[in-house]
Amino acid sequence: MRAVLTGNKYVTAFTLGMQSSMEYRLQFFIGLFNLVFPIGLQCLIWTAVYASQDHQSLYGYDYGQMMLYTVLAGIVAKLVMTHLEHTIAEDIKSGGLNTYLVRPVSYFGYRLSAYMGSRVVSDTILIIVMSVVIGIAMAFHIGEMSLNRVAVAIITLVLASAVQFLLTYTICALAFTLQEISYFFVITTLIVQILSGGMVPLEVFGEAANQWFNLLPFKYTIYFPVNVLNGRLAMNEAFQGMLIQLVWFVLLIGASRMAWKLGLKRYVGIGG
């Protein structure tokens, strides 16, 4: 920890995060299994659903498009979801946050740097897998993919990751108030995954529900980048969605600062 708090502390945090991710290889392979298994299961379910009905499409997706959405949504979910809730909550509950409060280091900056470092290896592999999926989809003319769309989708993915990180960081401020928050995180993670379109396309929930989804940040973390990439959204809709992502980015910066400012007023700092 002392190394992090001297010199270029955030670069050091990034490096430590990357080293940590390479040390826990078993955890990485478990994460890879957690990617493949749900995607495979969902593909089997959708295959059975399409086979049992006469229509060529469901919720505006034909079979190939639904398979493509399912695979891409699973990969994008792995790319943008942070899973930092328990780590940050433990720092708050155990008093580990004290280390950052008494020294000239930003806890937000440290966690962001360490998180980015920890994702280098896994995200590289996920991007390679996604590239293969995109190549197969383009070869079989599934969706309306193009290199221009891929370029725009990369920008939406960066913004989606930023929005998701800030959303997680804001929610973690509840650890200052709630005594037992682990189960709360499990529930919120599941809800966010569903509302983001990580489980099924949001069209499944109907037009009325989607009007509400448009007002929330969640759809812009998974559903939106996937549909920019697969061609379901026109380019003008893609740029409009990117503007909304930027708006949520700014709003969540303010919300996270306010939530943590209020939380720190309640912070006792026992331990550490």
Note the main attributes of this structure.
disordered N terminus, 2 strands, 272 residues, membrane, two-stranded antiparallel sheet, single chain, mainly alpha, transmembrane
Describe the structure.
71% of the residues lie in helices and 1% in strands. The chain has helices spanning 9-23, 25-51, 63-80, 85-94, 98-101, 107-118, 120-139, 147-172, 182-195, 207-213, 223-229, 235-266; strands spanning 57-58, 61-62. The radius of gyration is 20 Å and the shape is globular. Pfam families: ABC2_membrane_6.
Structural class: mainly alpha
Given the structure, what is the number of helices?
12
Any low-confidence stretches, pLDDT <50, length ≥5? Answer: 1-7
Domains, number: 1
Mean pLDDT: 89
Residue share in helix: over 70%
> What separation lies between the terminal Cα atoms?
12 Å
What is the rounded Rg?
Answer: 20 Å
Proportion of β residues?
under 5%
Number of strands: 2
Q: Write down the overall geometry.
A: globular
Order of strands in the sheet with most strands: 1-2
| Largest sheet report | 2 strands, antiparallel
Q: Order of helices and strands, N to C?
A: HHEEHHHHHHHHHH
Transmembrane segments: 28-51, 63-81, 120-140, 152-176, 183-202, 238-260
Protein name: ABC-2 type transport system permease protein
Keywords: Membrane, Transmembrane, Transmembrane helix
Pfam families: ABC2_membrane_6 (PF06182)
